[in-house]
Amino acid sequence: MPIVTTAILTFILLVLIGIIVGLAFNRYGRSWLGRQVADATGVGDVTYSLVGIAGSFMGFHIGVILGLLPSVLLYVAAIFGAALTLWFWRGR
């Protein structure tokens, strides 16, 4: 597979991972009242998705720095990176 196709596929997968983890944190990580306050203040799905995307890119590249082989482990690192970034971003 050419490197350009692989790079585009990796980019799309990292964006999707970030969006999915961000939406999961926003929908299931808080109570009903917390979601109502967040919606009133403007911190909603889009913000969580963007922070999740940033976290997935950080997790993926930290996995590359650690020397993980280009396999499923890099995408698992992206999931952990997105979740950890969202967890710290929420103030826990």
What do these coordinates show?
There is one protein chain. The chain has 92 residues and is mainly alpha-helical. The chain has one domain. It is 83% helix and 0% strand. The protein is built from four helices and no strands.
Largest sheet: none
Task: Determine the structural class based on helices, strands and strand pairing.
Answer: mainly alpha
Number of helices: 4
The amount of beta strand, in percent, is: under 5%
H/E element order: HHHH
The rounded Rg comes to: 14 Å
Give the helix level as a range of percent.
over 70%
The tally of structural domains comes to 1
Mean pLDDT: 82
End-to-end span in angstroms?
Answer: 41 Å
SS elements, strand count = 0
Low-confidence stretches: none
User: Which word captures the global form?
Assistant: elongated
Features:
92 residues, mainly alpha
What topology emerges from the helices and strands here?
Layout: H1 3-28, H2 32-41, H3 45-66, H4 72-89
Concise overview:
The chain has 92 residues and is an all-alpha fold. It has 4 helices and no strands.
